[in-house]
Amino acid sequence: DIVMTQTPLSVTLGQPASISCRSNQSLVHSDGNTYLSWLQQRPGQPPRLLIYKISNRFSGVPDRFSGSGAGTDFTLKISRVEAEDVGVYYCMQTARTSRSFGQGTKLEIK
Amino acid sequence: EVQLLESGGGLVQPGGSLRLSCAASGFTFSNYVMNWVRQAPGKGLEWVSTIGGAGNTYYADSVRGRFTISRDNSRNTLYLQMNNLRVEDTAVYSCAKDFETSLAPDYWGQGTLVTVSS
Known about the structure:
Number of helices of chain B: 0
Largest sheet of chain A: 7 strands, mixed
Strand content of chain B: over 45%
Radius of gyration of chain A: 13 Å
Oligomer: heterodimer
Order of helices and strands of chain B: EEEEEEEEEEE
Number of strands of chain A: 11
Largest sheet of chain B: 7 strands, mixed
Structural class of chain B: mainly beta
Distance between the termini of chain A: 35 Å
Radius of gyration of chain B: 13 Å
Number of strands of chain B: 11
């Protein structure tokens, strides 16, 4: 099974933030795409899709969110953190039929 | 507007069974991959199962052989039959649809709580 590992995060409002996600296997699918997504879960709410296939921003997601990476190492960046960005961020791989999430990164404001 | 509404959760004893339902609306249900994801109290997201539009199914190792995912495209409903439940299956269970061919879940229900306890 693919195991996803994320890093913790504490940031200052208005400053950039970066969340890392690493997998123990390549997430390149046999079709050539890399199926790595990022989701945000605000307190008390269901998850919200932010980024799919490494770097594609989902509809309605502010452009301060961006995704990058390749193979086994991926990053979600927030160019300027706002108060509404507080929550838990999950990376998710769907490159294999057995899907998996990272353990989550709680974004806290200093 | 896409809507996903789960039901069927509740309190069950270890070894018992429950069937969860997810009523979908606002999109052509039969065209989309659907998922069940759970979240234990205070914990992270855990993928449970996925079913394709044609009915192909996939399961997490932790539930394989005990849970069965299915769909009724005529009723726009997703199901999760859960048998031989364990205390560690206690969680909020949510259904989610994939976004087109991105293999990423874009819409989620609010979830239904399953509590396994004696």
